C-alpha cells in the first residue's frame, strides 16, 4: 500500500526546501510513548490542526495533536505562502450558485481568515517574513478584462478598497517581464514564509497548553461515544472529540472523507540569490504574484533576493523525477533573463482538492469531524477553519454547520477509477492553458 506520508519524503523528514534552510529543524518533539485519554485529539500538525489546538487551548480545553512526521511536514510547511483574499471560487461564481447573501458570508469568512493570520502573527510575535501585496497577473487581454470586472465587483458590492488595477505597462514595470497583459494588485492580501509561520503556531499552541507529539502516526480510528485512535507503535488515544486535519496526506484513514478529497502534487523551485540588477523593481516592491493560468504560476522574492517560483502539478502519488526542470521551464518563459540562474532548491508538496473546489467540513460522527480540501487556497482558510472547529466545540458559532452543509460530493468512481477520471479532467484543462 502506497503511503503518502513517506513516498516522496523518505523517513517522513522535511524536504530540502528553501523554507527548511531558514529555520532550525533539529529540535524534535517527543513521540507518544503511552496510552492516553484527552478531551480533544487532533490528527495532523499543519495550519488546520495547530490553529485548532491553539484556539481550543485558549478557550481552556485540553488539546492533543498527533503528527505522523514533523510540525508543518505537509502542505503547510512547503507552500507558496500566499495569504490570498476570498475563496477558491470568485465572488461572481459564488453569487451565481448560492445567491448574494451567501456569497457575502463566504467573503466575510475569508476576510476574517486573513485577519486571523495577521493577528496570530502579531499576538504570538511570529517572525515569518510577512509582507503585503499579491498581484493577480493576466496572461491575455480577455483575462485582464475579467480581472478588472472582478476588481470592480469587489470594490462596489463588497466595499473592498484594497485593489489597484494594473495595465500592461504598469505590470511589466513592477514585475520586470513583458509576459503579462494586465491584472490587479491586492494590497489586502499578503505573503509569508509558511514553515516559519506553522512552527510559530506550534510554539504558541504549546505555550497555551496543547500537547503535540511528532512521529506519531495514527493508523486506525474507531468512532463511538468516545474516539479510539491507534498509532503505528500500538499506543492508544481515547478522546471525547476528534478532528481529522490530514488534508492531502489523509490516505484511507477515513474513507468517507477520502472519497471527497483528492490528493494532487504541486512543485516549487528557489533560485540562488539573484545577481545585482536582476528583477530590481520586483525585488523592491516585494509583492507575490499568481497568474491566470488554469494551473497557476505563482512566485515572489525571498528576503535574501531569490525568486521562489511555483508552477507545475501532477496527479500520481509519486512526484515526477523531472519536476525541477518543468518548473524551471515555466520560470524561464516569464523571465528569460534567468536562463543561466542556478536553482538552489526544488521541492514538491501534496494538497487536497474537492470536486467543486470548496473546502470540505465534515461531521464524521457526533464526536468526530474532519476539515480538508482547500483546493490550493488554504493558507488563510485553514487557519480560520481551525478556529471555527474550536468554536463548534465551545458552541460559540454555527460556521462549521454552515460549511458542512455545502454540497461536497464524492469524486465519481471507486478509488481505482477516481484517479484516471481526475487525470483526464485535469489534462483537458491544462491543454486549455496551452492554447490561451
Ligand atoms: C506546493 C504547494 C503550494 C501551495 N501554495 C499555496 C498558497 O500559496 N496559498 C494558499 O492559500 N494555499 C497554498 N497551498 C495549499 C495550502 O498549503 C494548504 O491548503 C494548507 O497548508 C492545508 O493545511 P492543513 O493543515 O489542512 O494540511 P497539511 O499542512 O497538509 O497538514 C496535514 C498534516 O497531517 C499529517 N498526517 C496525515 N496523516 C496522518 C496520520 N495518519 N497520522 C498523523 N498525522 C498525519 C501530515 O503529516 C501533515 O503534517 C499550497 C499547497 C502546496 C502543496
Write a short abstract of this structure.
The protein is an alpha/beta fold.
Describe the fold and architecture:
By secondary structure, this protein is an alpha/beta fold. It has a domain at 16-79 and 195-261 and 355-405: 3-Layer(bba) Sandwich (FAD/NAD(P)-binding domain), CATH 3.50.50. The protein contains twelve helices and 17 strands. The protein has helices at residues 47-58, 91-98, 100-123, 141-158, 168-175, 194-207, 255-258, 280-285, 323-334, 379-393, 399-404, 415-435, and strands spanning 36-43, 63-66, 82-83, 131-138, 163-166, 182-191, 211-213, 218-222, 227-231, 236-244, 262-271, 288-291, 298-301, 307-314, 343-353, 360-363, 368-372. Strands 3, 4, 5, 6, 11, 12, 13, 14 and 15 form a nine-stranded mixed β-sheet that branches. Strand 12 and strand 13 form a beta hairpin. Helix 1 (47-58) packs parallel to helix 10 (379-393), helix 2 (91-98) crosses helix 3 (100-123) and helix 3 packs across helix 10. The two termini are 39 Å apart. Bound molecules: flavin-adenine dinucleotide. Flavin-adenine dinucleotide (FAD) binds at residues 5, 43-49, 66-69, 73-76, 78-82, 84, 217-218, 245-250, 253, 266, 268, 298, 310, 349-351, 372, 374, 376-379, 382. Flavin-adenine dinucleotide is lined by residues 5, 43-49, 66-69, 73-76, 78-82, 84, 217-218, 245-250, 253, 266, 268, 298, 310, 349-351, 372, 374, 376-379, 382.
